[in-house]
Request: fold
Amino acid sequence: MKNQNALPTTMRASFCVSANVEDQARSFAEWGLSYTQISNGIFRGSSVMASVGGLQLVVEDLNKKILQRGTVPKNRLAIGIPLELEGHSRMCGEQSTKDALHVFSCYPDFEFLSPERHIVANVEFDINSLSSELTQGLGQALYAKLLAPVVELSPAAAEHIRQLLRQALGSIRADAANVSVQHKERMSLLERNLLYGILEVVSAFPEFPPHSPPRAAKNWEIVKRVQQSLQNPDSCFLSIAELCIELQLSRRTIQYAFESAVGTNPAKYLKAVRLNHVRHDLMCGLSVTEAAVRWGFLHLSAFAHDYRTFFGELPSATSKRYGHAKTQVAYPSFY
Reply:
């Protein structure tokens, strides 16, 4: 559900509320995001977006643990600063906290494991579209400096950036209702205030960022290997036994890697990802039976129970809501 205001061509604002992770990911239209719900319960997400010129601000609110994977568009600097971040959180394998910058643009692609309680304010600079040579130069300088996915700040420095983002968001919203002839100058001021403010607080950050501890990096690599195999039903792991044999790792090693990197055990993680795939297929038109079997759920009554526990509704309800219910073999009513 979207409510978009009519704004000048250089200024846009929107508010989006999502009832599933796929719609939430699509609210970042140019990022090519993929969201996977990891924790049980009915998902609720929202995004408040405001943009002017080469600057875009987004405040995203999620109520479930989500694995976010994607790519920031070329020549863009994208930084997140948490407003609320409670629980196990990782950015490209690095442990993250509320008082840290999340630099989504530091690698060609990123993976962000957000916790149960997650409200993050993102600022995105399209460097080539900034309003002046000065702000384009500042953007390039900041882009070159932010080389790590997680930049730890002091609580005071983190709060300073939060306040800058709140002020910028409020200014854009106010200007939306009262566009003046000084709009271009105000746009340049917004860019300068944010760029200088962020550059100031990260100025002491080392040019060559520290690496994750070897064990933490190794644990994240194990999770990434598993995640890659889970994207295809032909290679999707169905059990811990398969993981152990295919990865040639002990059950204890895999258990520790997932608990350390993701904050959950591997069996729950495998089931969560497979249930997400089923939900996607139901939304795309497959029947409940087809989607369940495709992702390795052979005991349909147990599958229906797991699906309802995870998403808060039966799989048939998902299929019907998206208009894809098909005539199926008669199964018990709890499907």
Q: What stands out?
A: Residues 222 and 257 are 7 Å apart (CA to CA). The chain is about 40% helix and 20% strand.
